């Protein structure tokens, strides 16, 4: 059998099995050594094939797709530093539990470590971040090796997409010639059964009656509990958690990335806990007897501080054995499908102090009234409120890290729209924010990207995708000419030397010229009503547009702090009148 025939059938069977196992989206960064994979994916004609010339951008573009679809997306690149540029997206996928299948082409073994061009050590090059790494054998079309190719294709999909989701990495060594021959017979499969691998799995996990009884015995003597719902990827979990809270009469601290703040209208939902708990004295007065946490730790730092400062009985719910407990405080763990666990817990007959719930509700309503106050000037917080007021139903909000996600946490409230909020909170980096948003828009849905100027510039190359594909994205660019989040941190408050150089990082790039470079409609707004009109214009047009909101860093800090102080003073006055309950 010739080399070309072995190459064609080996890769063809691998590609077919990926499709049979559920993969539909392939993101390719062009290169020579990856020719067998790239041509095979294109020739198969059942995949959505996307091309991004920048591997770092491609990695986050695929990440965005996988976030939105909750299905594994394949990445393909050539050998050498091309593969290295996937690393930031792989880290984010691992930390935020997003299924990616990374296929890196490589030189054959005899060309490694001998000074051959574009040859680097690609074996386990992503360290421990992938759930599974495997170096594929050299192409071979024997029946045994074709089944080997299928088995590993299926294993890659099942490993990436199973609980806990994450990236996998397969490294393909290829010898030249690299061009497959698709005129051959049996390129994709060998018989009518397609030689495919299939899986049959139970859809539900259940806690035993013994475990449920132990939990009931543990909690029934307690009075004040909190349910925390942090970032997660379970679309049905939010309602299950809110149902649990209603059954038990407990407040839910719902992170903006938890899907609890959309179309819920639940009185148990507390959105403004970040503003309420900023003061250490308040956290001491509002100490719960126990906490049940679903998902990762919330964005809001005061929740972490609440757990760090006090010994609170914690029960952490997760899919499998993990230790998502950055407080390093004692906790117990409950494993299973989180939505199923929540539903089972709701069957327990447990009731708690109703005054505790009504106090949280009262404080939440007051905080929201302060945070929702109207103003003529356009602040960074009001930029969030503006988006929520006019964003189309059943679209997507994707949020950059640093200040944008914190402002969404503070100013994005429960509402009647089905608008899920996403962010790259696995590693909390500013890498690839633009590309991730473009990946989420690849589904055909309208995406609003809220991003700061430094994050935008860091991943601006993702805008190249707007020249290739019909994507509907409204980019709201908060431009405070630098790293605005540092203005809230001790680096700014202590007037340390070289603050502007090292942390403020001022930049003077004309964003209108950036928009012109990519042929994007552009508007620059400084007042609230014109801002709403700019959003309206964007949402009623196709394609990608850029809305720049220019703000002043110090004015933004003062505006936020004034609201937090008002909420803090009111909260302390309310709790002072209830010292017999909370002390």
Strand content: 5-15%
Kindly report the spatial arrangement of strands forming the biggest sheet. 2-1-3-4-6-5
Show unreliable segments: none
How would you describe the shape?
globular
The beta-strand count equals 18
Question: Over all CA atoms, what is the radius of gyration?
Answer: 26 Å
Stated plainly, the CATH topology of the largest domain is called: Rossmann fold
Helix content: 40-55%
* Largest sheet: number of strands, sense, barrel closure: 6 strands, parallel
Average pLDDT rating: 92
List the helices and strands and how they pair.
Elements: H1 3-20, E1 25-28, H2 35-44, E2 48-51, H3 55-69, E3 73-77, H4 81-84, H5 87-96, E4 100-106, E5 132-135, H6 143-161, E6 167-173, H7 209-219, E7 225-229, H8 237-248, E8 252-254, E9 269-270, H9 273-276, H10 280-285, E10 290-294, H11 301-309, E11 313-318, E12 332-335, H12 338-345, H13 354-371, H14 380-390, E13 396-399, H15 403-411, E14 421-423, H16 433-441, E15 447-452, H17 453-458, E16 473-479, H18 490-493, H19 499-504, H20 511-517, E17 522-525, H21 528-539, E18 544-550, H22 553-576, H23 579-582
Parallel strand pairs: 1-2, 1-3, 3-4, 4-6, 5-6, 7-8, 7-10, 8-9, 10-11, 11-12, 13-14, 13-15, 15-16, 16-18, 17-18
């Amino acid at each position: 059998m010739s080399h070309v025939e072995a190459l064609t059938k080996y890769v063809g069977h691998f590609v077919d099995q990926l499709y049979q196992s559920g993969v539909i989206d392939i993101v390719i960064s062009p290169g020579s050594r990856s020719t067998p994979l790239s041509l095979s994916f294109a020739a198969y004609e059942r995949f959505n094939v996307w091309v991004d010339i920048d591997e770092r951008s491609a990695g986050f573009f695929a990440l965005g797709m996988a976030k939105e679809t909750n299905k594994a997306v394949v990445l393909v690149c050539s050998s050498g530093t091309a593969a290295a540029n996937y690393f930031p997206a792989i880290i984010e996928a691992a930390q935020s539990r997003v299924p990616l299948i990374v296929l890196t082409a490589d030189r054959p073994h005899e060309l490694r470590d001998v000074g051959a061009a574009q040859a680097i050590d690609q074996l386990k090059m992503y360290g421990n971040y992938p759930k599974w790494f495997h170096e594929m054998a050299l192409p071979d079309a024997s029946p045994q090796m074709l089944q080997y190719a299928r088995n590993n294709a299926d294993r890659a999909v099942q490993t990436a997409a199973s609980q806990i989701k994450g990236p996998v990495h397969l490294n393909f060594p290829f010898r030249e010639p690299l061009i497959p021959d698709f005129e051959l017979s049996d390129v994709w499969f060998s018989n009518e059964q397609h030689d495919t691998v299939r899986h049959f799995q139970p859809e539900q996990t259940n806690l035993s009656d013994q475990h449920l009884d132990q939990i009931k015995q543990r909690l029934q003597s307690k009075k004040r509990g909190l349910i925390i719902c942090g970032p997660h990827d379970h679309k049905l979990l939010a309602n299950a958690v809110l149902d649990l809270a209603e059954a038990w009469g407990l407040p839910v601290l719902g992170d903006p990335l938890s899907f609890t703040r959309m179309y819920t209208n639940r009185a148990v939902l507390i959105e403004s806990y970040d503003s309420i708990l900023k003061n250490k004295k308040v956290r001491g007065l509002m100490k719960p007897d126990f906490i049940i946490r679903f998902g990762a730790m919330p964005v809001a730092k005061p929740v972490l501080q609440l757990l760090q400062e006090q010994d609170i009985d914690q029960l952490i719910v997760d899919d499998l054995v993990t230790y998502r407990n950055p407080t390093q405080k004692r906790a117990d763990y409950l494993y299973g499908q989180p939505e199923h666990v929540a539903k089972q817990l709701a069957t327990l007959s447990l009731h708690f102090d109703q005054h505790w719930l009504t106090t949280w509700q009262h404080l939440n309503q007051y905080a929201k009234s302060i945070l929702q106050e109207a103003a003529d000037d356009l602040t960074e917080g009001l930029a969030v409120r503006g988006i929520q007021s006019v964003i189309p139903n059943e679209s997507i909000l994707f949020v950059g890290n640093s200040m944008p996600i914190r402002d969404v946490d503070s100013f994005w409230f429960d509402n009647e729209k089905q608008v899920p909020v996403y962010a790259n909170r696995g590693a909390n980096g500013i890498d690839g924010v633009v590309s991730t948003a473009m990946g989420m828009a690849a589904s055909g849905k309208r995406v609003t990207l809220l991003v700061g100027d430094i994050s935008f510039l860091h991943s601006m190359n993702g805008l190249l995708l707007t020249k290739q594909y019909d994507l509907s994205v409204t980019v709201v660019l908060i431009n405070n000419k630098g790293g605005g989040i540092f203005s809230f941190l001790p680096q700014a408050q202590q007037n340390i030397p070289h603050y502007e150089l090292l942390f403020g990082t001022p930049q003077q790039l004309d964003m209108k010229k950036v928009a012109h470079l990519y042929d994007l409609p552009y508007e620059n707004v400084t007042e609230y009503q014109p801002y709403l009109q700019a959003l309206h214009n964007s949402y009623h047009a196709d394609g990608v547009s850029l809305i720049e909101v220019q703000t002043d860093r110090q004015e933004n800090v003062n505006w936020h702090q004034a609201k937090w102080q008002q909420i803090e003073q009111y909260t302390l006055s309310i709790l002072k009148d209830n010292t017999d309950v909370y002390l």
